[in-house]
Amino acid sequence: MDVRAQISMVFHLDKCIGCHTCSIACKNIWTDRKGAEYMWWNNVETKPGTGYPTKWEDQSVYKGGWKKNFTGEISLRGSGKYKGLLNIFHNPHLPVIDDYYEPWTYKYTDLIESPEGDDQPTARPISLITGEPIDIKAGPNWDDDLSGTPDYARNDPNLASLSPAERDAMFQLERMAFFYLPRICNHCLNPACVASCPSGAIYKRGEDGVVLINQKVCRAWRMCVTACPYKKSYYNWHTGKSEKCILCYPRLEAGLAPACMHSCVGRIRYLGILLYDADKIKDAASANDDELISKQMNLILDPFDPEVIKDAKSNGVADTTINAAQYSPVYKFVKSWGLALPLHPEFRTLPMLFYVPPLLPVMASVTEQSKEQTEKFDSIAKVWNDKWLYDTSTEELWQNVERARFPLKYMANLLTGGDENSIKSVLKKLMAVRIHRRRVTVGDVSNQKADKVLSDVNLSSEMADAIYYLTSLAKFDDRFVIPPAHREQAIEMLEYTGDTRGSAGFGFKEKPSRIS
Amino acid sequence: MSLFNNFLFIGLPYAALVVFLIGTIYMYRSAKFKFSSLSSEFLEAKSLFWGSVPFHWGIIFLFFGHLIGLLIPGAVLAWNSVPLRMVVIEVTAFAFGISAFIGLINLIIRRKTNRRIWTVTSKMDLLVEILLLVEIFLGLWIAYEFRWGSSWFAAVLSPYIVSIFTLNPDISAAANLHWVIQAHIALAFVILLLIPFSRLVHLLVYPLHYLWRPYQRVIWYWGRKKVRDSNGTWSVSKAKNN
Predict the structure, then answer these.
(1) Are residues A194 and B215, on separate chains, in Cβ contact within 8 Å?
(2) What is the pLDDT of residues B113-150, one digit of tens each?
(3) Nearest CA in chain A to B204
(4) Is the pLDDT of residue A374 over 60?
(5) Residues forming a β-bridge with A45
(6) Nearest beta carbon to residue B52 from set A90, A95, A496
(7) Shortest CA distance to A33 belongs to which of A97, A103, A94?
(8) What is the tally of structural domains in chain A?
(9) Nearest CB to B115 within list A85, A92, A132
(10) Domain range spanning residue A450?
(11) Does residue A19 lie within any of the structural domains?
């Protein structure tokens, strides 16, 4: 057992309101620079939608992530030692700027400097690359809230395995539903970007698992952009270096939450330590498709297990880090409660950002358009009878989950690699918590029924209350459990303290002596 | 004329070598951030394919062809002793030369006509591209006009280049060549001189070491185990990345 610590995240999709505050916080701090204008280390996508860069999930186009070979070994899909070095002069799978969007600003000076005339002066859009006027064809979140559905939402790669009827049903106006998917770098345990970098510029920090790109070693071979299946490594066309989310490590080291998480209005984000067994990474990454999630969950170790604590200590994991792991909200969501799932586990990078799937579109379910139901439509307003809509205490407790307005298959394609049962069990748990809390706060659910619901999904009422607390009431310190960076050791991380003794002080690294 | 020849075949080569060596070390240490080519594929990928790929494979073949002629001229002469084999070598080399030439022309056209690429173009990029274009053109001219260069290069020029490297320059062979060949040689040294200061540095850092390293890379700031071991002695070794 090789116990290591990883800073991991949970995003609770039910709580995301799609306000993009996270994206703006990140952009203001990190990517408001020339060459980085188009980069959104944090972005929020509307699902269904093609996302950013467009259709990033379609690996038949971008060739990202790992694939399992017939030998049972995994290899990088579009890069790697041989493919990467041979395609180094022209990478055929590299997304180009038009797959994201051409960044622009407006020529505001025209508004005040135009000569007097008959018409109102306008500020024309100007490309931030060439400085010339451009015709804007796409921008960040061009498909926000299902806008441009024929071009975007209907081309979502996750719809591929849905039947045409299911797809059409999703886009009927009365049934339409969507949710938001905020994305940052997943800081994977088996990062494809690290593996694909010919220069060795990308690395995972041993202490906390943050994946970083050394800007002085990066030599613009661009393979990480192809290799990352989440397209979270971006090429800066101005500096010729790749850049990616750094999980605000300067903030983390100071005990602050990353900017996107700190600013999150919906408080959907949780961050904490997970202890994992690095010896099992290879096994988990090359598991069969149906075992990918369970093996990844098995990697994550119980921070209360005395054996794990002992091994962690002998591996140099600080006591404070182990302590933080025990209070980690991420551990609770991912392991204790089994509510959070990795995004696209089939890419085999073992992402360490987990998502609690959204229940809300499920709750507001409309089943088949039977005559009986059509009668429930208000003839003019086309709204449903409220009682029917939120009738969570019907006899058929799980029916709303089974007949989700959002096809389960779609959610499964997104979060479980197509396995509907795992996603269903998570949604049932979320539903059970709601029914339990309805019993507590509204009181129109019988104890017998609520207890049955909880026991169906193996939750105790204490656990349900804990889930409710961490979901709805959690304070800052509950949501972000950041272990100290140990600055007393950090000085030794940066420089050898023996050097400074007897030296001349700031700026000098040699002894103030001419004769040694 | 001998002064000019001395400058061209002794002064320039040594200046180029010294500047190349010191410049490379200096730039690697002081301007590491710039020690690569500025890839523009992200801004335009389609026409890059028809420039970059033929150019690079062409120039790589030609580079190693010249290198082999320099290092083992005897073997080249032996290979060329059968006329058919010599013709095969010459034709192949010429084809790769054409490939590099056409690729470079495509690259220059792309750079000049695409607005996005033009904004990431420096003066040094243009200088290097034009010098390379002239150099390849001269090479093609030589291959066409002064036939069987693979043989006479090994016989005449290799000794000259070797004499440069053994610090005992003998320019008698080089000084009597046709001016086209002389220009080809001199320009080669100019390009060598420019390598550390232009985008050409990327050929010095071609990541062959990627083949030998494990795929994943984890960096620890400090041996935590060492730090936590109170019984251990004070380590005198610095952290690896310090």
Answers:
(1) yes
(2) 999 999 999 999 999 999 999 999 999 999 898 877 77
(3) A219
(4) no
(5) A181
(6) A90
(7) A103
(8) 1
(9) A132
(10) 359-477
(11) no
> Which residues 46-105 of B have a C-beta within 8 angstroms of A?
48-49, 52-53, 56-57
Instruction: Note down the domain range covering B99.
Output: 2-210
Which chain B residues are closer than 8 Å to A194 by Cβ? 215-217
Whether A214 and A250 have beta carbons less than 8 Å apart is answered as no
- Residue B228 lies inside a defined structural domain of this protein: no
Asked whether residue A371 is assigned to any structural domain, the reply reads: yes
Provide the pairing of β-strand A269-277 with A341-342: unpaired
The CATH number given to whatever domain includes residue B23 is 1.20.950.20
The ipTM estimated for the assembled molecules is: 0.89
| A447 belongs to a structural domain | yes
The answer to whether residue A92 scores a pLDDT higher than 50 is yes
Query: Per residue, what are the HEC states of A278-306?
Result: HHHHHHHHCCCHHHHHHHHHHHECCCCCH
Q: Which residue has the tokens 């243009």?
A: B126
How many of the other CB atoms lie within 10 Å of CB of A411?
Answer: 27
Report pLDDT digits (tens) over A100-137: 999 999 999 999 999 999 999 999 999 999 999 999 98
Residue contact B239–A240, C-beta within 8 A: no
Is residue A384 in a domain? yes
- Position B234 in a domain: no
Count of A–B CB contacts within 8 Å? 147
Domain count, chain B: 1
Specify if B44 maps to a domain.
yes
Q: Which two tokens stand for residue B143?
A: 């291959």
- Residues of A within 8 A of B43 (CB-CB) are 96-97, 129, 237
Name the nearest CA neighbour of A85 among B50, B211, B25: B211
Percentage, residues of chain A above pLDDT 90: 64
Residue of A243, A493, A494, A495 to mutate, interface with B, max B Cβ within 10 Å: A493
Please tell me the distance from the alpha carbon of residue A65 to that of residue A350, in angstroms, as a whole number: 10
**By CA distance, what is B60's nearest residue in A?**
A89
Task: Confirm whether B150 is domain-assigned.
Answer: yes
- Cβ–Cβ < 8 Å for B173, B157: yes
Per residue, the 3-state secondary structure of A323-367, as one string, reads: HHHHCCHHHHHHHHCCCCEECCHHHCCCCCEEEECCCHHHHCCCC
How close, in Å, is residue B83 to chain A by CA atoms?
33
